[in-house]
Specification:
By secondary structure, the chain is of the alpha/beta class. It has two domains: about 1-240 and about 425-485, Ribonuclease Z/Hydroxyacylglutathione hydrolase-like (Metallo-beta-lactamase, Chain A), CATH 3.60.15; about 240-420, Rossmann fold, CATH 3.40.50. The chain has 13 helices and 25 strands. The strands form five sheets. An eight-stranded mixed β-sheet has the order 1-25-4-5-6-7-8-9. The longest helix has about 30 residues, at about 105-135. The chain starts with a strand and ends with a strand. The chain binds zinc ion. Zinc ion binds near residues 79, 81, 84, 183 and 208. Zinc ion binds next to loops.
């Protein structure tokens, strides 16, 4: 039963809160800001603490949560993406000071993400303040960073890393197990075992579920069974298998651009997508399917993330391990240069022969990619290659949509370079993957909550699940709704 009241009635026996209560505090009928309050077995836990990124929901990042952060027993993370960990420093600022539990790679990647986010928040606030002063404008929220680098640094010591598949006891009633979700390095579904009035009850938060057969990381693991499942539904209404093999598309684009004597400039996300690209390019290079040309990964965060990937090679899939064993390390190949400092980055643009330049940010909203675009976009020999989702209102989106002129760093630039896009790089499983993940449970869950998806997609998925398993109780919970189970 849904209730709008946050403090729903709870049955107290011998001072222990009975029943399981979940409050949906993000990724509720939309995608970002994953955050769920779980009250069970005498514990109060927050599952993920993500940042809202949709323009219309940004204000929620500033709202006080409908619970006292100081009363939480722990935060448990599914993975290190910004929309799952991005507001942790704010929670700490609001009084939370207990452990943040995650897999080992998630601890390292989340640290990187939070520090980078703190830096971006500071820069944004500074820039906004300057703009507001110039125009005498006043926004609805104070022009201060959501959090600073220093506040992000204060969060880091709370992060504690654990292994997959090993139940972690939280108290006498509750344990949690991290299960491979196949989405990014370290990503997990969370399986809670809860002792509730003498009964063992199983509850799963899917986290983000990956595609099968993605390079580097393992496939999502099977979960035996659970009574209650909170599942993502990002691609609840889509199947993305028909885009064609990613490596073939990449091979064609690199070769065509090389023949024109141009550069391939790839805006990329620093974590996972960057490493995935390096993997594919290394495969093409080792197989002599592309010419010997210099490849630059020009993003300090991508370079740092790549180091983390190399340290956690034990978390990779069998094919990747085999490549390591064959001395063809997938994240290192002849011709690849990892660029950290600014001078090296600038030097790339003085080169005259063709090269491949990967840089962030992935949607061209900030960072070094803007410099590379300025230097390459006006030459018809070059290709600007997009490999990720481009959100509405970003420079990347305008380029993908075929704009003839762009504004970068206050100047106008005609778009002469070829603009291409490869689909099929998605980190999320599609409708079929989600259904397969769910159908592996036996017996099937009794309750299913669909989250982390726009309403249209979630509704389509709800319809299909209902048809296949008519007895399952399915809900698409709204923001701040609570449910007692
Ligand atoms: Zn994610």
């Amino acid at each position: 039963m849904f209730t709008n009241r946050y403090h729903a009635r709870q049955v107290l026996i011998h001072g222990i809160v009975m029943a399981i209560q979940i409050t949906f505090l993000g990724a509720s009928q939309q995608v970002t800001g994953s955050r769920y309050l779980l009250e069970a077995g005498g514990l109060k836990l927050l599952i993920d603490c993500g940042m809202f990124q949709e323009r219309e929901f940004l204000g929620r990042n500033w709202d006080d949560p409908p619970f006292d952060p100081a009363t939480l027993d722990a935060v448990v993370l599914t993975h290190a993406h910004l929309d799952h960990v991005g507001t942790l420093p704010r929670l700490v600022e609001q009084g939370f000071n207990k452990p943040v539990l995650a897999t080992e790679p998630t601890v390292e990647l989340a640290t990187l993400i939070m520090l980078d986010s703190g830096r971006i928040q500071e820069e944004d606030a500074k820039y906004k303040l300057k703009r507001h002063r110039k125009k005498g404008h006043k926004g609805p929220h104070p022009v201060v960073p959501l959090y600073t680098v220093e506040q992000a640094q204060r969060t880091v010591p709370l992060l504690k890393g654990y292994k997959y598949d090993t139940p972690l006891t939280l108290n006498e009633n509750v344990s949690v197990t991290f299960i491979e979700a196949g989405h990014i390095l370290g990503s997990a579904s969370l399986l809670f075992d809860i002792q509730d009035e003498g009964k063992n009850r199983k509850l799963v938060f899917s986290g983000d579920i990956g595609q099968h057969n993605k390079p580097l990381i393992r496939d999502p693991a099977k979960i035996d069974t659970a009574e209650i499942v909170v599942m993502e539904s990002t691609y609840g209404d889509r199947n993305h298998k028909d885009a064609g093999p990613v490596d073939k598309q990449l091979e064609r684009i690199i070769n065509e651009t090389y023949k024109r004597g141009g550069n391939v400039v790839i805006p990329t996300f620093a974590i996972e997508r960057a490493q995935e690209l390096m993997y594919y390019i290394s495969e093409l290079a080792y197989a002599d399917k592309i010419p010997d040309i210099p490849v630059f990964m020009d993003s300090p965060m991508a370079v740092d993330a790549t180091e983390i990937f190399k340290r956690y090679r034990g978390y990779m899939d069998d094919e990747t391990m085999a490549m390591f064993d064959k001395h063809e390390p997938p994240l290192r190949f002849p011709g690849l240069t990892l660029v950290r400092n600014v001078e090296e980055s600038k030097a790339i643009n003085t080169r005259t022969s063709p090269s491949i330049i990967m840089s962030s940010s992935g949607m061209c909203t900030a960072g070094r990619i803007k410099h590379h675009l300025k230097n390459n976009i006006t030459d018809s020999r070059n290709t600007i290659l997009f490999v990720g989702f481009q959100a509405f209102g970003t420079l990347g989106r305008r380029l993908v949509e075929g704009t003839k002129e762009v504004r970068i760093h206050g100047e106008h630039w005609p778009v002469k370079a070829k603009v291409e896009q490869i689909h099929g790089f998605s980190g999320h499983g599609d409708q079929e993957d989600l259904l397969n993940w769910l159908s592996e449970m036996d017996p099937m869950p009794q309750r299913l909550f669909l989250t982390h998806g726009e309403m249209d997609g979630a509704k389509v998925l709800e319809g299909i699940v209902h048809k296949r398993w008519p007895h399952m109780n399915i809900k698409i919970p709204a923001y701040q709704h609570s449910v007692e189970l």
